[in-house]
Design a protein that fits this description.
It is built from eight helices and seven strands. By secondary structure, it is α/β, with parallel strands linked by helices. The chain has a single domain, classed as NAD(P)-binding Rossmann-like Domain (Rossmann fold, 3-Layer(aba) Sandwich), CATH 3.40.50.720. Strand 1, helix 1 and strand 2 form a beta-alpha-beta unit. Helix 1 crosses helix 8, helix 3 packs parallel to helix 4 and helix 4 packs parallel to helix 5. The protein is globular.
């Protein structure tokens, strides 16, 4: 006897899936049989993800949209629903650590904070709202919000990002309670330190290595592992799971030593 996850006949939207974690989530959804709507603000990256899925025999289409525009969010969901006929799975992966890199708390001004909160919490909330409206009409669905392992511990140099992502955890609980009666499950996944291109730009390599070495498993989180977890949470194997924050962080929330020289001098 074997247990397999089959999302054939389902339509999945993965925002921010032109690269990194989002790309791997999209690829794994397609491997499980879903028709995947690949969203990104960058046309080339979205097309690359679609090509990778096509090369593996999957079904996908690119939907280029800048979700920092409120109207673009609703248009994206409408376009995806028109393309696939429905929307069964939505993974809200759009977010940012900080285009300007990490920073001390005392160096983060109002513009910095608003940028981070808008591109993490607000985008996730508005995306979830548009997706939920479609799912309520069709009788159910699954929404997965991408949070962060940084929400489970103090995050020096990343206070704005961690706070915005922590708010996504609470948002997920509230969404799960309100949308549950409509047969919509809502969960959040929290990646550990994952060496995406954005992380490479934000962290000195030695800092990253120190973080990884301090986890109980002494390893990083791979983007494909978030893909596998998302496929499971979207499946009937997890049909009784909602309102949960699922950590995939190599145990980092249990124990982490302080990385060396974070540049936090009082001056």
């Amino acid at each position: 006897m074997s247990v397999e996850i089959d999302h054939s006949g389902k339509v999945a939207l993965v925002t921010g899936s032109g690269a990194g974690i989002g790309r791997e989530i999209a690829r794994w959804m397609a491997r499980a049989g879903a028709a995947v709507a690949v969203n990104d603000v960058r046309t080339e990256e979205a097309d690359e993800t679609v090509a990778l899925i096509a090369d593996e025999g999957g079904t996908a289409s690119a939907f280029v949209a800048d979700l920092r525009n409120d109207d673009a969010i609703h248009q994206l969901v409408a376009d995806v629903t028109a393309w696939g006929g429905r929307l069964d799975i939505a993974v809200n992966n759009v977010g940012m650590m900080a285009g300007r890199g990490t920073a001390r708390f005392v160096d983060m001004d109002g513009a910095f904070w608003r940028d981070i909160v808008d591109q993490n919490l607000v985008l996730t909330a508005l995306s979830g709202r548009a997706e939920a409206l479609v799912m309520m009409e069709q009788g159910g669905g699954v929404i997965i919000n991408v949070s962060s392992g940084e929400t489970t511990r103090p995050s020096p140099m990343m206070s704005s990002y961690a706070a915005a992502k922590a708010a996504i955890n609470h948002l997920t609980w509230s969404m799960a309670v309100e949308l549950g009666p409509h047969n919509i499950r809502v969960n959040a996944i929290a990646p550990g330190t994952t060496l995406t291109e954005e992380v490479k730009k934000a962290f000195p390599l030695g800092h990253y290595d120190a973080i990884v070495a301090a986890t109980p498993l002494q390893r990083e989180t791979l983007p494909e592992e978030l893909g596998r977890l998302s496929v499971y949470l979207a499946s009937d194997l997890a049909r009784c799971t909602t309102g949960q924050l699922i950590l995939a962080d190599a145990g980092a929330f249990l124990s982490r030593t302080r990385p060396p020289n974070l540049g936090q001098d009082a001056s």
